[in-house]
Design brief:
The chain is mainly alpha-helical. It has twelve helices and three strands. The protein has a three-stranded antiparallel beta sheet, with no helix packed on it. 31% of the residues are buried.
């Protein structure tokens, strides 16, 4: 049975192997080229320090480096982000849909192997290689990003969309989610093209909706700045800002506070107030605040979000089992 399944999935497995070899070779070559560029431009210290205006880490050499490498690093992140969807569409969705569409499932159902074992064998043969390819490429891209340090996309903080989705357990959970979603839709629809199309659409929508829940999964910390004209979030903190605004003298949140500060700017030929803080306080805005999730909580957020995706994956597996069992 395993041999037959391997033969059926051979095109997908060969595609994964080619993608793995091409990806590994490209990433290693690009990383070597970038490291040589960092050494040639003397930017080694900037990798740790990041961009610092007014110093050597904010000069022309840094700008030239980022012009060459920043977009390439972002593309590598996007590829890691896209892999779960590709695996779900091209491996998960056709897994059972093609069998039912072509009628080849009849051969399996008339053998002594149970349907549960048949399903488990197909999942094992396809999901394990797909996850292996994903993890290898994620590790290599992560190492490349670390080599760029503060000169690359990581300077945007761990909660930036690309950084969060391509690091930690996120790619793994997204892939399991996409694969099982495609598998469920394929078993239910029994049409390959329909399953692939619906899987892609459902994955994009659910991924977008669930990503919007991230700020709700952890209790944010409130940061307060005594100067109402300043932001309460320290520079380069990498924190995820959930909410921000101003407090009154009693410490209460002022609704729509930003509408009150329009009078503190210059209008027409008027001269702008020189003491903005006093202007703010005269309008009842005593302090600035920001509710944030600290950068060091990114790992906890990964675990919480991942548990949601894996929980949904379990439901999709149960749904696929139900759909296969009812198939004649």
């Amino acid at each position: 049975m395993t041999w037959i399944i391997w033969r059926q999935q051979r095109p997908a497995l060969i595609s994964l192997a080619v993608a793995l070899l091409a990806g590994v070779a490209a990433i290693l070559l690009l990383r070597a080229g970038m490291s040589a560029d960092i050494a040639a431009k003397g930017l080694g210290a900037c990798v740790a320090d990041g961009l610092t205006p007014g110093t050597a880490c904010g000069g022309t050499a840094v700008g030239e480096f980022r012009d060459i490498w920043f977009d390439r690093l972002k593309i590598a992140q996007i590829l890691v982000l896209a892999l779960p969807a590709l695996i779900g569409v091209f491996i998960g969705a056709p897994l059972f849909a093609r069998e039912f569409e072509q009628g080849t499932h009849v051969l399996a159902f008339t053998q002594s192997v149970s349907r549960a074992r048949w399903m488990a064998s197909k999942v094992l043969v396809t999901a394990v290689p797909a996850l292996f390819v994903l993890i290898v490429l994620q590790v290599l891209v992560g190492g490349w990003l670390d080599a760029a340090g503060g000169l690359g996309p990581l300077t945007s903080g761990p909660f930036a969309y690309n950084n969060f989705g391509s690091s930690g357990i996120a790619p793994f959970t997204y892939t399991v989610f996409a694969y099982t979603l495609g598998m469920f839709i394929g078993a239910l629809s029994r049409r390959t093209l329909m399953a692939m199309t619906l899987s892609l659409g459902a994955f994009v929508v659910l991924r977008f909706v669930l990503s919007g829940l991230q700020p709700l999964l952890l209790t944010p910390d409130r940061l307060v700045a005594a100067d109402p004209t300043q932001t309460a979030v320290p520079a380069k903190s990498g924190a995820l800002v959930v909410d921000s605004g101003h407090l009154d003298a009693a410490g209460n949140v002022v609704p729509n506070s930003f509408s009150r500060i329009t009078g503190c700017g210059a209008r027409g030929d008027e001269v702008a107030p020189t003491d903005l803080a006093t202007c703010y306080r005269e309008r009842g805005l005593a302090k600035a605040y920001a509710d944030v999730i600290p950068a060091d909580a990114a790992g906890s957020l990964h675990l919480l979000e991942g548990s949601i995706f894996l929980g949904l994956a379990v439901l999709f597996v149960l749904g696929a089992v139900w759909a296969v069992r009812r198939q004649v």
